[in-house]
Amino acid sequence: MILRTFFGFCLILVTFGVCQAQFFNFLNGFGRSFSGSENVINDSDEFLDEYDFVVIGAGSGGSVVANRLSENPDWSVLILEAGKDEIFLTDIPLIASLLSITGYNWGYKSKKLKTACLGLIDGRCNIARGKGLGGTSIINFLLYTRGNKKDFDDWESMGNKGWSYEEVLPYFIKSENCSSCEDIAGEFHGKSGYLNIEHPGYQSPFVKLFIETGMDMGYPNNDPNGRNGLGFSRVQATMKKGLRCSASKAFLKPVAHRSNLKISPQSRVTKILIDHQTKQAYGVEFIKNKQKYTVRARKEVILSAGTINSAQLLMLSGVGPRSHLEGLGMEVISDLPVGYNYQDHMAMSTIAFLVNESVTVSDLTVQNPIDIYNFIARGKGPYTIPGGAEALAFVKTKYASKSNDDYPDMELVLGAGGLNGDVIGGFRALLGIPQKFFDSVYAPLIGRPSFSIAPVLLRPKSRGRVSLKDSNPLHWPVIEPNYFSEEEDLATMVEGIKMAISIAHSNRFQRYNTRINPFPFPGCKHLRFGSDEYWACAVRHVSTTLGHHVGTCKMGPMGDPTAVVDEQLRVYGVKNLRVVDGSIMPNVVAGHTNAVIFMIGEKASDMIKDSWKGF
Ligand SMILES: Cc1cc2nc3c(=O)[nH]c(=O)nc-3n(C[C@H](O)[C@H](O)[C@H](O)COP(=O)(O)OP(=O)(O)OC[C@H]3O[C@@H](n4cnc5c(N)ncnc54)[C@H](O)[C@@H]3O)c2cc1C
Ligand SMILES: *[C@@H]1O[C@H](CO)[C@@H](O)[C@H](O)[C@H]1NC(C)=O
Ligand SMILES: *[C@@H]1O[C@H](CO)[C@@H](O)[C@H](O)[C@H]1NC(C)=O
Ligand SMILES: *[C@@H]1O[C@H](CO)[C@@H](O)[C@H](O)[C@H]1NC(C)=O
């Protein structure tokens, strides 16, 4: 009872932003005794003048690189992270979306678009990016998928030697510890990596119905990271005993004791130092506790600040499109298309299905002592559902089904609750749903059990751009995601929505008398509810990003005018500088991006070790 009150109280306090800092510190101490996460980071303000490697950003990519490079005791490694350490709250899988309203999110917003996010707060898209040890893997939804075989074979056929599926698979396996997974294709999984993967310790009855309906449609119940690219399955999650396994928990904390590895949180890099004559990167400037520091890198600077910030830092350091930089009065060291090729996954998470039994999960249903006890004592129960997502399907719409391959263009994510259960408002805040919108579409249904199926556009054609507003490193960059600027993306998404609805309205789901939420979306009320035009309007108004932003420092062969880094992830025209994070993806993969970035980190580490062998 005490716990229940405490927990409910926590969520409410955080939601209203009351005394967040004090509260988080308190929670941190409180939660550590449950999660066993100890503060192992020695956060001092003392730095050497020079390290062999300086890694910028302790997110999914950077954490792996810092770990692997410091395996060599002769190399010193400094990893600089703008944000703080994680806390107990960030460990709880179910409440992932709440973290977007904390300081663990950079909180970016896009420019206003004509093609998307029209019905969201201020008409702008929320671009959530994690800030802290662990990066975006601290605020993400923990879903573990690797993309499709064809994604990597395509990267390779664009001229990126070494990146075919066959060549990257060993690195997925290397990073992974899937020791307690069930129903998996064993030969595709690892058991001795740092990254813990498991199934959530809870399953609503809809998981079974969803998978069975998939089989009715001719899709297998598969391991989403196994042999078949298409199929329906339970989720695999980056989780350990029911708690989030972030990049930092997996790759940094276990090796934080290494004397050749210095992990420095709250250290914001403002510039990569590049010699104008030799075009060689030789160090970084950063700010910690209001003080400015300069450290040198003897061997390399590794840029792992993520798709938005890596592009920004490169441009701030003189690497970017010439006309853009000169227009801002900045010097150009290497003229490259930094910031272009931005890609992302958009989803319709706003469609709720009502059912006639209380078998779903919402903010209200989980405020009971049994669920809280189960989570804290056993690491089980609904609190372990990653961001509320229980199962997923990789499918083909009519636009992809012409070809004979198993390359999906649509993902369907089964959620244990609908937005009408988002009483505290964490999910709404992440998506940017205005209060008026909530009041007219969901508020009449508060307390009614519901679930959701969110279609995700996996292979978008639309491309966006990240650019500088000015030369101040502390200002936000300009983000123009251009979602749904290509009509085909819109048409495919409408097909995905219709698939989601037809699954929810299929026979098996009638056991719960499943019905779509009948309240129409504001802005689309003039169109016939359920028509293609209606759904297209809904997509433009309230589809939202899954946070899979990639591509702004594209990998490509020499001579590709759109490439920023080569197949070894070295920045063209600059020596001793590599980019290792999601920004190097030439095309977004047809799956969630976190696992792929761990793979990129593992592979890059081997490349770097190779080029400095014997030094
Ligand atoms: C809400 C949300 C849900 C998601 N859900 C999933 C999911 O379920 N499954 C999945 O696979 N993927 C998911 N993702 C995506 C996935 O988590 C990211 O693609 C991945 O973590 C990005 O890794 P990265 O290394 O490219 O960047 P990040 O992990 O973002 O790392 C960059 C780091 O650099 C730091 N940094 C930036 N600038 C500076 C600077 N100037 N100085 C110092 N440090 C700096 C940042 O603070 C950050 O810690 C989700 C994303 C979001 C936003
Ligand atoms: C922490 O780091 C500082 C400077 O790097 C060092 O002097 C100190 O001994 C370290 N403390 C521990 C407990 O490792
Ligand atoms: C993998 O996970 C299992 C179960 O949690 C654990 O016992 C084992 O030590 C882990 N292996 C590694 C290499 O961390
Ligand atoms: C829910 O609806 C189904 C189908 O109409 C019905 O068979 C079932 O009894 C209902 N359950 C409850 C609890 O009303």
In CATH terms, the superfamily of the domain at 109-142 and 194-246 and 344-545 is: Glucose Oxidase, domain 3
Q: How much helical structure, as a percent, in the residues?
A: 25-40%
CATH topology-level name of the domain at 109-142 and 194-246 and 344-545: Glucose Oxidase, domain 3
Uncertain stretches of 5 or more adjacent residues: 1-6, 12-24
Main sheet characteristics: 7 strands, mixed
Bound molecules: flavin-adenine dinucleotide, 2-acetamido-2-deoxy-beta-D-glucopyranose
Q: Give the mean pLDDT.
A: 93
Secondary structure category: alpha/beta
- Tally of individual helices: 15
Based on the coordinates given, report the CATH architecture of the domain at 109-142 and 194-246 and 344-545: 2-Layer Sandwich
Distance between the termini: 60 Å
Top CATH class of the domain at 109-142 and 194-246 and 344-545:
Alpha Beta
Question: Radius of gyration in whole Å, from Cα?
Answer: 23 Å
